[in-house]
């Protein structure tokens, strides 16, 4: 979707060589690097990217919420960070940790929250226990932040 909307300079990272090969086969990425988020620094200089996205990786047993300062490090001032997590029962503890960390960075003035939107049918559930009200799907949240310094939004 990003490529179709004119974004052509896409870089990607993943901890799995197999997923990087799959991404490479799409022809959409200008650069792909192997990196385990939360365990090693991102392979990019400080304030390098206009926008950073993490989709499908912020969850229990995956990328720790302690990765947030590293994501901020590689984002230009005024740049955007789009993050997602699931709201299914097995991810609620992680989601609480993540939201506390997001809030702490906002309180410190590192970034400003632009959006936190719940998405009811985020992805298919793998079990009935994880399904949101028996729909066969789990819900998720999309968070959008802008790295400071930016003027605060007026009410």
TrEMBL record:
Gene3D superfamilies according to UniProt: Vaccinia Virus protein VP39
Protein name: MET27 protein
Molecular function GO labels: S-adenosylmethionine-dependent methyltransferase activity
Taxonomic lineage of the native organism: Eukaryota, Metazoa, Chordata, Craniata, Vertebrata
Domain Methyltransferase type positions: 4-82
Stored InterPro entries: Methyltransf_11, SAM-dependent_MTases_sf
Pfam families membership: Methyltransf_11
Source domain of life: Eukaryota
């Amino acid at each position: 979707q990003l490529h179709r909307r004119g974004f052509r300079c896409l870089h990607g990272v993943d901890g799995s060589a197999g997923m990087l090969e799959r991404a490479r086969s799409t022809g959409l990425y200008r650069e792909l690097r192997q990196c385990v988020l939360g365990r090693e620094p991102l392979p990019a200089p400080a304030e390098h990217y206009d926008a950073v996205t993490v989709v499908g990786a912020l969850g229990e047993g995956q990328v720790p919420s302690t990765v947030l300062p590293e994501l901020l490090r590689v984002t230009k001032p005024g740049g955007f960070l789009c993050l997602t997590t699931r709201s299914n029962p097995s991810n609620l503890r992680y989601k609480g940790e993540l939201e506390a960390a997001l809030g702490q960075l906002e309180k410190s003035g590192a970034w400003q929250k632009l959006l936190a939107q719940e998405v009811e049918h985020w992805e298919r559930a793998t079990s009935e226990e994880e399904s949101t009200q028996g729909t066969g799907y789990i819900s998720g949240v999309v968070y959008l932040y802008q790295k400071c310094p930016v003027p605060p939004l007026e009410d």
